[in-house]
Structure to design on (360 residues):
């Protein structure tokens, strides 16, 4: 057993989502969104480095020493998987670990809207799950892929950095590929995927022009592609994809994206005030013919209005989802105000003026 495993077990017992271990500080857990220090001595650089190098492969260690940071995966059988990041900082080595549960929660267990589960049955196209870091994108995607794994006799291929949720083949066949371990890059893996007979492709992160371009190509050639982006809402997601391309290509990209995109799910996590834990507020955009037309005509600013009028298709805005949680007394008015899009709708619920003076 690795020395660091004791901290992972503590993390699991405390229900923490993240573990921070940084030279010169005590270990810190993030529990329900709050940072809490562990009653332990301050970590010395050499001691922490030895502890971390015990669980990191030689290739990843070499990469870290050359570049100053590296992502990797680690698993404790019977407990959980962990997505780790090593980084160099002023006082020495640092690391952050995110716990990836061994058991994949279903759409029902996550209390996701019914339309989310239906995304697993789409025959082709692109579905994007977006949101800030730590918003639960991977958990939502895992639930959708799990539904496809149980119900479709297909080949599911995941490309991640590192591998997070591990799906055991059920009705479908599932293959996992890790960037840096099984393939050089997301783009290389996507090029290879088109020759590997997949029906469903999960792209862990669409982080550059080439990856996005290849993902759209796969969606246009009969594959169902799931991916993630670090964007805050549906309209910004569409804009982000288009703007990453050179100006001369953007008109063509709009047309291609309008045809390829099937849905965008943007989510934000909130700390609950009624019970321990967190809940997600989801913005859901379904690409109906009207929405496709807005994308083609560069009228993405009208997408929020389209979501308001498209509730019968399962669409909802982030603000509507936040308001529902607020009215059900699940989240605080302060959190709702901080994370909403239209501040004027939520300022009335605050007991005192907003703390962010730039919003006034």
């Amino acid at each position: 057993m690795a020395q660091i495993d004791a901290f992972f077990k503590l993390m699991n017992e405390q229900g923490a989502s993240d573990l921070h271990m940084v030279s010169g500080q005590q270990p810190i857990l993030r529990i329900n969104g709050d940072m809490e220090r562990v009653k332990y001595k301050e970590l010395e650089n050499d001691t922490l480095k030895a502890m971390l190098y015990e669980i990191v492969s030689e290739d990843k260690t070499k990469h870290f020493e050359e570049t100053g940071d590296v992502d990797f995966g680690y698993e404790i059988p019977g407990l959980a998987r962990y997505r780790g990041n090593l980084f160099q900082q002023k006082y020495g080595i640092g690391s952050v670990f995110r716990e990836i549960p061994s058991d994949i929660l279903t759409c029902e267990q996550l209390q996701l809207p019914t339309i989310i589960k239906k995304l697993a049955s789409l025959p082709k196209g692109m579905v994007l799950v977006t949101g800030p870091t730590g918003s639960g994108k991977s958990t939502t995607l895992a639930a959708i892929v799990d539904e496809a794994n149980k119900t479709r006799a297909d080949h599911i291929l995941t490309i991640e950095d590192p591998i997070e949720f591990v799906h055991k083949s059920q009705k479908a066949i599932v293959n996992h590929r890790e960037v840096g371990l099984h393939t050089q890059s997301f783009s290389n893996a996507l090029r290879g995927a088109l020759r590997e007979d997949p029906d469903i492709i999960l792209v862990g992160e669409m982080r550059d022009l080439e990856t996005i371009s290849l993902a759209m190509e796969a969606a246009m050639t009969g594959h169902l592609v799931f991916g993630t982006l670090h964007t805050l809402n549906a309209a910004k997601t569409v804009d982000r994809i288009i703007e990453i391309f050179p100006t001369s290509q953007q008109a063509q990209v709009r047309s291609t994206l309008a045809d390829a995109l099937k849905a965008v799910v943007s989510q934000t996590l909130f700390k609950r005030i009624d019970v321990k834990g967190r809940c997600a507020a989801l913005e859901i955009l379904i690409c109906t013919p009207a929405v496709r037309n807005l994308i083609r005509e560069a009228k993405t600013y009208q997408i929020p209005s389209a979501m308001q009028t498209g509730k019968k298709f399962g669409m909802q805005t982030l603000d509507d989802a936040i308001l529902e949680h607020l009215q059900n007394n699940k989240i605080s008015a302060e959190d709702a105000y901080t994370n909403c899009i239209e501040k004027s709708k939520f300022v009335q619920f605050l007991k005192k003026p907003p703390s962010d003076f730039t919003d006034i």
